[in-house]
Amino acid sequence: MTPAFAKRMSLLGTETAFAVGAEAAELASRGVKVYPFHLGDLDFQTPEHIRQAACKAIEEGKTGYCPNAGIKPLREALARDVGWARGLSLNVGNVSVQPGGKPVIGKFVMAFMDPGDEVLYPNPGYPIYESMIRFHGGVAKPYRFLETETGFALDFESIERQITPATKLLIYNNYHNPTSAASDEAEMERLAKLCVEHDLIVLSDEAYFDILYEGEGKSISSLPGMFERTVILYTFSKKFAMTGWRLGAAIGPENLVAKISQFNVNDESCTTQFVQWAGVAALEGPLDEYLKMMEILKERRDAAVDLLNSMKGVHVSRPESTFYLYPNVTGAMDKLGTKTVEEFRKKVLEETGVSFTTRNHFGSPLEGEKQSYIRLAYSGIGVDDIREGLGRMKEMLDR
Question: How remote is the C-alpha of 365 from its chain's centroid?
């Protein structure tokens, strides 16, 4: 007997970047050296004091159930740290601890979107946004970015023309995956004004808030009229090299965060207790390993940007945030005679071992798109391999 799956399972998306990883692994199994730019994991070890805090908590027996919204010391530490960095006055009621940042997306959608409601989300963008909107019966309305001389900017025309009386939510990812777009003050204020004017509830995905090479992080939640309508997605994964620990939080006004915590009760009960104690240690410091990691990431960024911009038919800006590059490869594709960006990706992988994702892994291309882009993550590859791998790609394009 064939099981009858729920119809909504056909609406559930995925992260196709993992399929690229499988292709790279198959190539490596044939003895080919692969340069892994495809997945945004970190090759840095979680700092020792964080690891020790988790071990200590286990030895002390902190392995059972704990409060659904998280242990009080972690919620207090998050309220202090996130509040200070964003100019907000927060307390434990503003924090709901989560098993990673990703669950915040689904819980936000379930808490504030009814079937048929419209949700604006970035495309290209993290593919789980669209997946969760569609799975739970919402109308996914993608907004785009415009390439500028210094990077990428929000296309306000694509946002404004899609707002209707049925539009209820907006998902905003400043320090953006995959483009590394970072809103300046004017752009963020313009978006905030739109949200207030149309009474939109906002998910501010701030996963890369602390992966910033210059200046100070900015959050839309700190602008006038925005805190009371914004849920911040916070994660420990990037800043503290804790991707596999699965620790994050939903942070915002108490009435919104309380709804997120209701899902904790129904889904996972609570986030692993000893992992939460590791989170306390992370926030209390020291930050030496984080600062060292940022120096290394900056060196990798600069090496990759310089090499990419030396390739024929490729250009990319030098982003101030994240650990991603989103170069325009339209000219290089023409030079190689590849008709699609996916064909270009596979050709580069087979001939050079350089593995990356493309614009197509971050949402379906929108009508009118004429330029082609790839995404390279430099979070899990050393600077020597960056130079070697991209050097091979450069040689290929020069030929």
Answer: 19
Q: Which helix (H) or strand (E) holds 333?
A: helix 330-336
pTM of the model: 0.95
Burial class (CB in 10 A: 0-12, 13-18, 19+), 368: exposed
**In 48-113, which ranges are continuous DSSP H helix?**
48-59, 72-86, 102-112
pLDDT at 301: 98
Quick one: CA dihedral 182, 138, 199, 69, positive or negative? negative
Residue type, 4: A
Sheet holding 374-377, edge to edge: 324-325, 374-377, 357-358
pLDDT(59) > 90 = yes
Tens digits of residue pLDDT in 274-297: 999 999 999 999 999 999 999 999
What DSSP state is assigned to residue 314?
-
Cis status of the peptide bond prior to 286, with omega within 30 of 0: yes
Q: How far apart are CA 117 and CA 201, in angstroms?
A: 12
Lookup: tokens for 201: 């509830």
pLDDT single digits (tens) 359-380: 999 998 999 999 999 999 999 9
**Cβ atoms of 349 and 340 closer than 8 Å:** no
Structure tokens at 186: 């004017």
Judge contact between 150 and 317, C-beta under 8 A: yes
Q: In what order do the strands lie in the sheet with 167-172?
A: 95-98, 248-251, 230-235, 201-205, 167-172, 118-122, 139-143
How far apart CA 147 and CA 156 sit, in angstroms, is 13
